Amino acid sequence: MQRLRDLTEAELLARVLPVYGGLPADPRAVPVGPGDDAAVLAAPSGSVVATTDGMVAVRDWRDEWSTGYDVGVKLAAQNLADVAAMGARPTGLLVSLVADPATPVEWAVDLARGLAATAAEAGAPVVGGDVSSAPEGVLVVTATALGDLDGRAPVLRSGARPGDVVAVCGSLGRSGAGLALLLGGAAPPGARGAGGPGEAGGAGGPGEVGGAGASGGRGGVGEADGPGGDGGPGGVGGADGPGGVGGADGPGGDGGPGGAGETGAYGGPDGAGGPGVVGGSGGAGRPRGEQASGEPGEALVRYHLAPRPPWEAGPVAARAGAHALVDVSDGLVTDVGRVARASGVVVDLDGTVLRERFAAGDIADALGPDEALRQVLAGGEEHSLVGCFPAGTDLGSLAGQAWVVIGTVGDIGTDGPRVTVDGAVPDAPGWDHFAGS
Ligand SMILES: Nc1ncnc2c1ncn2[C@@H]1O[C@H](COP(=O)(O)OP(=O)(O)O)[C@@H](O)[C@H]1O
Ligand SMILES: Cc1ncc(C[n+]2csc(CCOP(=O)(O)OP(=O)(O)O)c2C)c(N)n1
Ligand SMILES: [Mg+2]
Fold first, then answer.
1. What pLDDT, in 10s, does the model give residues 128-160?
2. What is the CA(117)–ligand 3 centre distance, in A?
3. How far is residue 96 from each of residues 41, 50, 130, 136, measured CA to CA in Å?
4. ipTM surpasses cut 0.85
5. Which CATH architecture has domain 4-148?
C-alpha cells in the first residue's frame, strides 16, 4: 500500500488537487485558486464570513467506521453549517491535513473526494489548504469555510426576542443516535466483516472508474496479528471498485464489492465484487451480508458518518427575517442555550413535537423512546439549523425548506436565560471536548 511517506508533498498535492476539480466558471468569484501562496476570493458584500472546524482521528471519527470520504463529507458539512448559521452563502473552503506519514495515500485522496463532492454541492470550491506531518497515529483534518452575506446583515445568536417562534430545519438526534449505535457495536454501512483481529485492517480500494466522488471502501477492523479485514465497497460512481487490502500480519481479507455507480456517500451493496488486493484466506469475522443495507438504524449511522445538513436554509431564513440562527453541533439544548444566553431570553421547547416529530420513528425503534428523546435534546453533530423567527413568519413558504416549529421565545423573568422543555429545565448535557474527557 502506498503511504504518505512514499510521496513528496508535491506528489501528494498532484494527487489531491485534481480531485477538487475546477473553480467556478465566473473567474471573478475565485480569481486565484490553489497553487499560489494564498487564494483570492471575491467578497461581493464587502465582508467575509469565516469559520473553521477540525476533526481528530479516534476522538472525532474512527477508521473502523468512517472512510476518508465520510470524513471529507462531514468536515465540509460541519463548516458549511456554521456559514449557514450566520445566514450566509458558502463561497469557498480551505483544508488542512496533518497526518502520520504512515497514512495511506488513498485515504488522503478519498478525503479530498468527500470534500470535493460536498463542496461542489454547496457551490463552495476548495481553494487551498495545507499539509503537515504528524507523530505516529495522529491524523487531524481541519477546514475553513468562507461565505458571503449577499448584502444582508449577519444573523447572530443574540437576536432572539420574546414572542419569536423557534423552528428547526433538518433532523434532530439522528447523528447522536447513529453514534450510540456504533458505540454499541453496530457495524457501519458497507462494512463487510471485521475479519477477526489483524494488524492492520486494510483500506478498501477506490472505485476503479471513479470519476468525481468515488469513494474508497471501508477497511476491516484489524487489531493484532490475525487475518486482515475485508475490503469495503468500491467507490460511489465508480464501476468495478477493487477489493480491500488485507491485514499486514495475516492473511488478506476478501475483496469488497464494486461501487454502485450512484451518487451519495456510499456505494450500494450489490456492486460487482473485486478481487482482494492482498490474497489469502478471507477474514473470519461477521458473516457477509450482516450489514446489508436496510438494517435497523442504518440510516442513523449513515447520517452520523456523513451528514447532509440543510446549509441552503441559512440564507433563506435570513431573507425571511430570522432574528437568530444556530447550528446544532453540540446538542439542541446546549446550542439553543447559547442563543438564550446571547439574547437574554428563555427558549421553551415543545416536548410533544420533539417526541412525535423527531424522536419517534427509526430513532425510537433503534434506541427506545427515552434514549431517542435524549438524543434529540442532547445529541451532537446534527448540524441542522435552529432559527428564531418573528411570530407570524410564514415558515411554510420558505423555498424548499421544511421548518418545524419546536418552541417559543419568552422573557427571562427572574430566573435568567435558559432553555426549558414544557417549562422545565431538562437534564440534557451536550457535547464538550474537554469536560469529563
Ligand atoms: N482557539 C480559538 N481561538 C479563537 N477563537 C476560537 C477558538 N476556538 C473557538 N473560537 C471561537 O469561539 C466561538 C465558539 O466556538 P465553537 O463552539 O467551536 O463554535 P461552533 O459551535 O459554532 O463551531 C466561535 O466564534 C469560534 O470562532
Ligand atoms: C469516535 C467519536 N467519538 C465521539 C464523537 C462525538 N463528537 C465528536 S465532536 C462532537 C461535537 C461537535 O464537534 P465540534 O468540533 O464541537 O463542532 P463545533 O461545535 O465546533 O461546531 C461530537 C458529538 C464522534 N463523532 N466520534
Ligand atoms: Mg463544539
1. 999 999 999 999 999 999 999 999 999 999 999
2. 24
3. 18, 15, 5, 18
4. yes
5. 2-Layer Sandwich (3.30)
